[in-house]
């Protein structure tokens, strides 16, 4: 490949384009000047870009069309950092869920459930006993209460004690499009993350291993 790259000249009329998600792993011999030396970073789509992506992929599944734009804005706001493949996957998952429930249309509930699967992981078959449910509930409420009283935390979207992925429960916050955070924001976010651990210590009287992920 290196020999072929060195063989190009101004008369060949050939432009070589390469793509990777792991540029840092490429050998320096490949990316030095004169070879693949021009780097173009393609960032994930912004809010408006995701709205257009959702409008595109929602048009390919069976929904009530008058809600297409409304759904697109709602879903785009819930999925910062997502790319076109993620959006396509969400719409496909929602269509599968609608089929499983014998629904005539894909609705917002199906789409939000598909986002939960993408962001939080699949529901687990494990069942919590009553003691575990109480501890997980207290833990998740601790996160929610602390974040409610702090001005620099993200808006709370939902609380769940349904096991998903590696978590027995979750607080889901409305994601932000911000790229920079102040010290006050970071401190408030850290306090909210540790709120579950503090709630266990205050109410249960001891801290469970469920708080280890927060640290």
From TrEMBL:
It holds the Pfam family AAA_lid_3. Residues 1-42 form the ATPase AAA-type core domain. Keywords: ATP-binding, Hydrolase, Metal-binding, Metalloprotease, Nucleotide-binding, Protease, Zinc. Transmembrane segments: none annotated. Its cofactor is Zn(2+). One of its GO terms (biological process) is mitochondrial protein processing. Residues 128-215 form the Peptidase M41 domain. GO terms for cellular component: m-AAA complex. The keyword Protease applies. Coiled coil: none annotated. GO terms for molecular function: ATP binding; ATP hydrolysis activity; ATP-dependent peptidase activity; metal ion binding; metalloendopeptidase activity. Residues 73-112 form the AAA ATPase AAA+ lid domain. InterPro entries: AAA_lid_3, ATP-dep_Zn_Metalloprotease, ATPase_AAA_core, ATPase_AAA_CS, P-loop_NTPase, Peptidase_M41, Peptidase_M41-like. In the N-terminal section; belongs to the AAA ATPase family. In the C-terminal section; belongs to the peptidase M41 family. This is AFG3-like protein 2 (Trinotate prediction). It comes from Henneguya salminicola. The lineage of its organism: Eukaryota, Metazoa, Cnidaria, Myxozoa, Myxosporea.
